Amino acid sequence: MSIETLFNLTGKVAFVSGGATGIGKMAAEGLVMAGAKVMIASRKGDLCAQVANELNHKGYPGSAEGFEGDLSSLKGIENVVEDILKRTDQLNILMNNSGRTWGSPLGSFPYHAWEKIMSLNVSGLFTLTQSLIPILEASATKDDPSRVINVGSVMGEIPMGDGAYSYAASKAAVHQLTKILAKELAEKNITVNALAPGPFVSNMTSFATGDEEMRTKVGAQVPLGRVGKPEDISGAVLFLASRAGSYVTGSILPLSGGINVETGPAIFQEAFI
Question: What is the pLDDT of residues 210-222, one digit of tens each?
Answer without folding.
Answer: 778 888 888 888 9
